[in-house]
Amino acid sequence: MKIYVVGLGPGGKDDMTIRAVRAIKNAEVVTGYTYYINLISDMLKGKEIFSSAMTKEVERCRKALQYALSGKTVAMVSSGDTGVYGMAGLIYEVCKDHPNVEIEVIPGVTAACSGAAVVGAPLTHDFAVISLSDLLTPWEVIEKRIRSAAAADFSICIYNPSSKKRADYLAKACGYILQYRSPDTPCAYVENIGRDGENYTICTLGELKDARTNMFTTVFIGSSRTKIINGKIVTQRGYRDI
Amino acid sequence: MKIYVVGLGPGGKDDMTIRAVRAIKNAEVVTGYTYYINLISDMLKGKEIFSSAMTKEVERCRKALQYALSGKTVAMVSSGDTGVYGMAGLIYEVCKDHPNVEIEVIPGVTAACSGAAVVGAPLTHDFAVISLSDLLTPWEVIEKRIRSAAAADFSICIYNPSSKKRADYLAKACGYILQYRSPDTPCAYVENIGRDGENYTICTLGELKDARTNMFTTVFIGSSRTKIINGKIVTQRGYRDI
Lengths: 242, 242
Prior knowledge:
Largest interface: A-B, 77 and 77 residues
Oligomer: homodimer
Order of helices and strands of chain A: EHEHEHEHEHEEHEHEEHEEE
Number of helices of chain A: 8
Strand order of the largest sheet of chain A: 3-2-4-1-5
Structural class of chain A: alpha/beta
């Protein structure tokens, strides 16, 4: 009775770890959001698959639990790392009355790290990771976190910067940060990391306010120690020059 | 003229991505801290190797640049993700006058993610990553970040919690956080992630204050939404119950 919770990394199979590949090979049942199942479809021959839409996470965890209780080895897959805004927490919650079901989280490369690698090295020193989705979190909590991270000179990585319903959230977030940081602060955003259509933009905080982003964009906001070097954004390791 | 900056993930080769394996295969010269070179020694046959001790990072980057300028493909390797307290930023700085040297950062699984997977799912919602090393950062900056992260209810992941010279730093950090959070807050720390001797402890914030940690320990401090489920620490995705 085992559930692997597998992070696939940013996109292509090349960004999976060897452990992640092996867990999927070991699994009899594989489940995930349809888009991610499709990304690894050629690894799934002979396996039972169930996929579902993005908002059905609790249902998917319950079904994974049912399969595990029936004696099957299950792999729940998602992009990035399942421990960062992913399913790892939810599966522990859903399985809490079944301590005999073994849960093994296989970590993956989260968008903070894979996106950072595309745009340079913005997170080489202390950083904060914040989602702008207020579906499950009151905006007041999000605002407080943005302001605190900005005031304490963290580099900031933003997940879910906007969606159709939340078109102005990134602009609002930039507005808060501009109260603490210069509009010249180096920033970047990247889309479709590791997938077809990967592209990134280096800009200033002042420009980021007007950037067009979507659910698949990851945003980086530099600290006072971030600069632009040869078209990439780079945060120095510390507060002393080399 | 190319330098790969390769994150190996937490420890064993199983945690490397397929891209990381390929970059090392492509490289003619491989460099890194001696300990990491040894971890992947069986991949290095026929390659030129130079390794050095932990404090020689700038020197190692300069040597990598020299090799690249001589036309060789170089892989700089280190554990975890090179973009998180790693060499990715430094190599951009050292190469800043050589824009013709191509730098490709290959992201890896950083200890925040690999450690989180061992102890449960502490970082499934907004989190801050803070190093307690004051070698390059004034302690006042570190203190401000710890207090800000604690006040804004981030989950917190701490790198470099202590060393022989900094034996009491984690206790000091916990002291600050206890001004904002209950001593019952679920916490965890993990050592030797993905390597021989991997072990972890789940505890409370009050207990963490007295924990014995070292340079290879990664520490997790829960938010107000973190609880213990079947011996693991788990942060809920948001502020609404499932």
